[in-house]
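Lab notebook, bench 4. The sequencing result for the construct came back, and we need a structural model before the next group meeting so we can plan mutations. Quick request posted to the team channel:

Model the 3D structure of this chain.
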Amino acid sequence: MIWYGLLVAAAAGERVAELVVARRNERWSAARGATVSGQGHYPAMVALHTGLLGGCLYEVWLADRPFLPALAWPMLALFKAAQALRWWCVRTLGLRWNTRVIVVPGLPLVTGGPYRWLRHPNYVAVVAEGVALPLIHTAWVTATLFTLLNAALLTVRIRCENRALAASTTPVSA
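Done. Here's the predicted structure in token form:
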């Protein structure tokens, strides 16, 4: 269980790193007249992602979930792939990446990197992580609850983001 706690702590550390990047990028965007959308759903998103991390640990500890190598190793691989995809998204969007919905006027849509194939690849990473991280140590209740709540939240988030990006109609590769 100790190694799993360290893995969840590393995931939490990654979230902190994302927030540092997001804050820097938010300042850059604000200096260019950016608009922020979807403030209403943002606290729910923060709570859900925090709950994922806590749920992983609490369920494994309280329910004495077993470590099943046949499940754990593929889920660890999926978790790592999700992190790689997330940081590919961050790198591709550069200063435009954020945890909030922030659009700088006049900038075209990014169509390079993973955005070449998917409109919202970062959310694929979020979905994969929400399944994989809990299941590394068979926290199936956490995986299920996060997935259901995240589906509802992503419905709101993606609609919000699509509306905010609608003004950016000229695709340019990054």
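The longest helix spans residues 2-30.
Will bring this to the meeting.
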